[in-house]
Amino acid sequence: SVESFIGSNRYLRGRTIDLLREVPRQSDALYRRVAQSVAVGEDRYASILAALVRDGLIEQAQGWYQLKET
Asked: Which residues share a beta bridge with 65?
């Protein structure tokens, strides 16, 4: 159902990618934007960012995140 999808890791990963399509962002700015629409703890969100980096979808440098250039 839609309710179970919103707030899922898959939803949060997609929302993060969407935000990074606009501009690179710092982790706290990403967290604030995502947390506006869905309740997510900072620790959980940090692990989602780490997973996106590990999966090669985004990159992080000096506190900023952006889409990985291909």
From this structure: 25, 60
Cβ density class 8-43: b for 16+ within 10 Å, e for less: eeebbbebbeebbeeebbeeeebbeebeeeeebeee
What phi and psi values does residue 59 have, to the nearest 5 degrees? Answer: -130, 155
Provide the Cα torsion 19, 20, 23, 26; round to 10°. Answer: 90
Q: pLDDT of 40-51, one tens digit each?
A: 888 998 999 999
Q: Which of 45, 44, 41 is nearest to 30 (CA)?
A: 45
Q: Within the chain, what is the greatest distance between any pair of CA atoms?
A: 38
Q: In the structure encoding, which two tokens stand for residue 35, read together? A: 């947390």
pTM for the model stands at: 0.86
